[in-house]
Design a protein that fits this description.
heterodimer, A: alpha/beta, Rossmann fold, 6-stranded mixed β-sheet, 4-stranded antiparallel β-sheet, B: alpha+beta, 2 domains, 6-stranded mixed beta barrel, 12 strands, 19% strand
């Protein structure tokens, strides 16, 4: 893979994924070849069952392909062991989930600092970065609150802060606006776009939201487990 | 990292308070039962030892070798004066008393009965046995009337005698084997919970017994009370060898009543078995609680795994929760065990009259609290709970994030 350029953060080569659904093989991905470069703001779209979820699971190392290879920041995911993969995800990927999925028993500050705790970042640095990150996402003075004491939009901001605080190379976002009203969704999307411009982090969305598609710099459409269209705006 | 795990564990077990309370109560009842069971066992053992040693046997006894097997009247203690003089000088001997033993027949105008006739020295006997304390009518030898006899209430009932009534005792004399008869007046009647002592024993003055048995100044037994009961259980002390000479044998109460220490040892095992069974049941409750909690938070675990928590880290979260559950339960169980045991340690448990291990319980059993009950058992509960947490922890550790989240994206 000498041809991988430094800016290629994700490269997939003939990625296939076959699931066993009660003895019946289901092809979720049918040979996906894609290259995503650093700093992209990419939306992956497609109808239900098109393979969006499976694709994001595989490029994040949460699931393994049946065939093919995935390079993430120059490393082959399938060649990593369990702990190595966990550490790699911790250091290189930020996750934003549709339902926020913050840890309900931890405060906002604890939720955001959790990944840094895993990485062994010193306490003072952790605190400073959490405060700065919360300020960046527009959530000052809420660090001591529990997620249940926040609105949906605020929770998603915390999730964004959690995903970005360790400065990963890639942010993977699963329908991040799906549970939000359009105004809050638009605000968050604008914020992520701004952060993408400012930090150069790569954002990859799985979405049905036209607003996200509109905002994306690159739009990849999956259909029947294959790349149907790939447009860069 | 440790702090966040403790926070996670603590707050997670408080998430479903009702479930945590139920699980904690189950564990704490188990711990309280262990504490109380142990305290009761100690109380019962103390009671049985006290009953066995205080009521008549003493902490140790000296006899002529083989006397206990043959009960031969002529087998009296050898070198009695030397033995007595030495015992008087022993620092660990608090009291000792001399006794004679013989079988015989007691007859009243109404009835007759076989008895063990025991010759005692009233002045020292009262320190070695509880016969004087058990007197319900009359006195335990007063003045110097050599025809006084003290009998049990059941024997008085059989003979249909009361205080002051006459009874005739027949024994077989040493060496000659001749019958010897003498008359006595009932001067005291005692009551013991032990039926055999109540119906089959009669006490007369030592001098009178020696005269009847024709054994001169000799005796069959010296019963000894040490300064501490533990001394009587220590077979390493030189006492036993010193007094097992001249054809005599010195025996501790553990040898006189060998069934007691054996049953005590067995009851130790039964305590452990009870503990294992108890916690075997509780352990499944803990596993169930942890799994219920785990399945409720499956997506959460998937997220933690996805964001980079290692397998061991995932397992640690569950183990810390098990630990938090254990600590809550231990506090509850220790309080419950303490309160329960303290109540019964004051009120006592009435087992009087029941025979256990060949000893009839004379007094209430008072459970005894010890430091071990609040250190060793809670530690065991903690370890058991952590062991119970291993399976759910292993389950979480090997869980794939995709499976946990079902639909992660």
């Amino acid at each position: 893979m000498e041809q991988i350029q430094k800016t290629d953060v994700i490269v997939t080569e003939s990625v296939m994924k076959v699931y066993d659904a009660d003895g019946i093989p289901v092809n979720a991905l049918n040979g996906v070849d894609l290259t995503i470069q650093s700093g992209e703001f990419t939306a992956i779209v497609g109808p239900s069952g098109s393979g969006k979820t499976t694709f994001l699971n595989i490029i994040s190392g949460l699931d393994a392909p049946t065939e093919g290879k995935v390079w993430l920041s120059g490393k082959v995911l399938s060649e990593m062991g369990g702990n190595e993969l966990s550490d790699f995800r911790r250091d290189n990927i930020g996750f934003i989930f549709q339902a926020y999925n913050l840890i309900p028993v931890l405060t906002v500050e604890e939720n955001v600092e959790y990944i840094m705790l895993l990485a062994g970042v010193p306490k003072t640095e952790r605190h400073d970065r959490v405060v700065a990150m919360l300020e960046t996402v527009g959530l000052k003075d809420v660090e001591d609150r529990l997620p249940t004491q926040l609105s949906g939009g605020q929770q998603q901001r915390v999730a964004i802060a959690r995903a970005m605080v360790s400065e990963p190379a890639i942010i993977l976002a699963d329908e991040p606006t799906a549970n939000l009203d359009s105004k809050t969704g638009a605000d968050l999307l604008e914020m992520m776009r701004r952060l993408n411009d400012e930090t150069g982090m790569t954002f990859i969305f799985s979405t049905h939201d036209p607003m996200v598609m509109e905002s994306a710099k690159r739009l990849i459409t999956l259909r029947d487990g294959k790349v149907d269209t790939d447009e860069t705006k | 990292m440790f702090l966040i795990l403790i926070k996670l564990a603590w707050r997670n077990i408080l998430r479903n308070k009702r479930r945590t309370i139920i699980a904690s109560i189950a564990i704490s009842i188990g711990l309280a039962a262990l504490i109380f069971g142990d305290a009761f066992m100690i109380g019962m053992m103390d009671n049985l030892i006290k009953t066995a040693t205080d009521s008549f046997i003493g902490d140790a006894q000296i006899h002529r070798q083989e006397f206990r097997d043959t009960r031969e009247v002529s087998m009296t203690i050898q070198e009695l004066d030397e033995v007595g003089a030495n015992l008087a000088k022993e620092a660990n001997v608090r009291y000792f008393t001399r006794r004679t033993f013989s079988t015989g027949m007691i007859a009243s105008s109404a009835n007759r009965s076989a008895i063990n006739l025991i010759g005692v020295q009233p002045s020292t006997e009262k320190f070695l046995s509880q016969i004087d304390d058990a007197i319900t009518e009359g006195v335990f030898f007063q003045k110097t009337n050599e025809h006084d006899i003290v009998i049990g209430s059941k024997l008085a009932e059989i003979l249909e005698v009361e205080l002051g009534d006459k009874a005739v005792v027949t024994v077989v004399q040493a060496k000659s084997g001749d019958y010897f008869q003498d008359w006595f007046r009932v001067s005291g009647i005692y009551y013991f919970a032990d039926a055999a002592m109540n119906s089959g024993m009669a006490f007369v003055r030592l001098k009178k017994a020696q005269q009847m048995l024709a054994i001169g100044n000799n005796v069959h037994e010296i019963a000894i009370k040490f300064t501490s009961t533990e001394y009587g259980q220590d077979k390493q002390v030189p006492f036993w060898e010193t007094y097992s000479q001249h054809g005599n044998e010195a025996l501790s109460w553990t040898e006189i009543l060998p069934q007691l220490p054996k049953v005590f040892a067995m009851s130790e095992y039964s305590k452990y078995i009870m503990g294992i069974v108890l916690f075997g049941v509780v352990i499944f409750g803990i596993i169930n609680t942890l799994f219920m909690s785990l399945y409720e938070r499956m997506f959460e675990f998937g997220v933690l795994r996805a964001v980079g928590t290692r397998s061991f880290g995932m397992a640690r979260i569950i183990l810390f929760e098990a630990g938090a559950l254990a600590i809550v339960s231990i506090i509850l169980g220790a309080i419950l065990g303490f309160v329960l045991t303290t109540i019964f340690a004051n009120v006592g448990i009435d087992y009087t009259g029941n025979e256990m291990m060949g000893v009839t319980v004379q007094e209430f059993i008072y459970p005894v609290l010890t430091i071990e009950q609040f250190t060793v058992y809670p530690l065991a509960v903690f370890i058991f709970t952590i062991i119970a947490g291993l399976y759910p922890a292993w389950h979480v550790a090997k869980m794939s994030p995709v499976d946990a989240m079902r639909r992660s994206f």
